[in-house]
Request: fold
Amino acid sequence: MAIQSGERVYVYLEDERDFILTIEEGKFFSTHRGNIRYDDIIGKNFGDWVETNKGTKAYLLPPGIIENVFHMRRNSQIVYPKDLGFILLMLDAKEGDRIIDVGLGSGSMSGAFARMVGETGKVFAYDRREDMVQLGTQNLSLWGVLDRVEIKWKNIESGFDEKNVDALFLDVPQPWDYLVQCWEALKGGGRMGVVSPTAGQVMETLRSFHKLPFLQIEVWEDLFRQYKSDPVTFRPYDRMVGHTTYMTFARKVFELYPENTVSRE
Reply:
């Protein structure tokens, strides 16, 4: 289908610079390799290319979740895509699930969950900062998944509005303060994930996890290294993204040991 005015297009230049543009008739976008006229894009198909006024090819592609995450407006640290994919798997996010996302931020994690739960599921996104609620709402609307996300400007100290959810993701500075509330919101066997950038946060979170009826408590870190795709000079890139976060996962049970009881005290 031909690209229309108002559509979002991922533009990839010959020198590997990239942009996401919202196409509008009569306008243009300036790059270091010349101007891209939007009227040249309208009527083209994804996979085609146009030229800047300086003769550089600009390839037209549909934006996906990776492009959206890297190009979105954000006011805070995001869950890096290499971690995001692993979290989706560990929380078993799928069609029809009800998932709580705490720490909406710019909306990248809620957007990823929304793609997975589909039209029959729901994501409940919490954030206590009004500016984050506004920014996350804008990004999710731009990505076309806002109808799958219920956004709440609320502190979770008093608990969640939802019960028996399939999974819960916690991205806050002191997650150990809210594990009881998370346990109460999860269904039996429900999965929980926590991200923390520092080892001290992980250790404090683990202490709290082990006081509650959770099983399969695991801590992970993933490291990925990209390689140059030239068949002649194939080798790793000299630089890589190293530590981004620690990921702690657990599953809810109703009773672990006789001495383990859920209490807010």
Summary: The helical segments are 38-41, 65-71, 81-90, 108-117, 130-143, 179-185, 199-209. The two ends are 59 Å apart (CA to CA). Residues 261-265 have pLDDT under 50 and may be disordered.
